[in-house]
Amino acid sequence: MLHLLVFLIGFVGTLSVAERAAPAANAQSHCDAPSELVQDEPKFPALAARFKSKEPVTILVIGGASTAGTGPDNSYPHFLELALRRHHPGAQITVLNRGIPGQTTEQMAARFTRDVFAQKPALVIWETGTVDAVRGQDVNVVADALSGGIAALQERHSEVMLMDMQYNPSTVSVINFQPYLEALHQTAALQDVYMFQRFEMMKYWSEAGAFDFINVPTENKASLAREIYECLGERLADAIDFATH
Question: Which of 85, 93, 92, 96 lies closest to 61, judged by CA?
Answer without folding.
Answer: 96
